[in-house]
Write a structure and sequence with these properties.
Radius of gyration: 21 Å
Number of helices: 8
Largest sheet: 10 strands, mixed
Shape: globular
Helix content: 40-55%
Strand content: 15-25%
Number of strands: 10
Order of helices and strands: EEEHEEEHEHEHHEHEHH
Distance between the termini: 48 Å
Structural class: alpha/beta
């Protein structure tokens, strides 16, 4: 885009401090690189963690030349009620100031205590600013299911929070000018409440990852003549659906 357009958004991926400066998840760096290709300036709000960076975190310099046009704004990690309430007045003022500097606004939502994306969406609505909301899972449903397992303390917290969380999610979705819902299940859960819902899916691949035409033709020919070989690559976590793959393999 041209004309000095600035996009401000909140992403829940935490920043970490490392020997080489700020560290961020590799996929998040790629996402910021792509956003920077389409806007003149980015203001990106993220929580800041004091814990050691996970292995998949890399220096933010991996974003590339676009980093010069990205302002990273760290927010406190405040997932405990007392920390959240202490930080809330300061973060609210900071969000309102950043909103005033941006042309386009977006917020990743999904939570209750410590969810700065939801706070940002509330502030944007109060200021009468159009914005989008993005989410990649139905957090209230995840929390409801968590009420069935874990420690007594975690089950109690999940039981008390999943209903207000669901109410807040639907209210934020209904107020947003645009709803970006990652994956079909998320889309089906929120689309009825959104005035402008869209199903999206982020796939982090480069052109070098694409299969060459010759290799694709050979693969298709091999599948037609011999046994079909199916591979699953991904995190073995219920959220990622490995059970669905196993069910399909069982039926085949």
């Amino acid at each position: 885009m041209t004309g000095g357009k600035t996009l401000m958004f909140y992403a829940p991926v935490p920043l970490h401090r490392g020997a080489e400066g700020l560290m961020l998840e590799d996929q998040a760096c790629n996402g910021l690189r792509l956003w920077a290709e389409n806007f003149d300036r980015l203001i990106v709000m993220m929580p800041m963690s004091d814990a050691p960076a996970p292995q998949s975190w890399v220096p933010v310099s991996k974003i590339g030349p676009g980093l010069a046009r990205i302002e990273l704004v760290p927010f406190p990690m405040a997932y405990r009620p007392d920390r959240f309430l202490r930080a809330l007045p300061t973060v609210r003022r900071q969000i309102r100031e950043l909103i005033g500097r941006a042309d386009y606004l977006g917020f990743s939502i999904g939570g209750l205590i410590g969810d700065w994306g939801s706070v940002g969406a509330i502030e944007a609505h109060r200021l009468g600013r159009a914005h989008y909301v993005w989410t990649d899972r139905v957090e209230s449903e995840v929390t409801r299911l968590a009420a069935r397992s874990g420690s007594a303390k975690s089950r109690l917290r999940a039981a008390l929070t999943h209903r207000p969380m669901a109410w807040l999610e639907r209210r934020l979705v209904a107020r947003a000018a645009l709803g970006l819902f990652h994956g079909l299940e998320t889309y089906e859960a929120y689309a009825p409440y959104s005035p402008n819902p869209h199903l999206v899916h982020d796939v982090h691949i480069n052109k070098s990852d694409h299969i060459p035409a010759g290799a694709l033709a050979a693969k298709l020919a091999g599948a037609a003549e011999g046994p079909l070989r199916i591979g699953y690559i991904g995190r073995v976590d219920a959220l990622k659906g490995p059970g669905d793959w196993l069910a399909v393999l069982e039926r085949l």
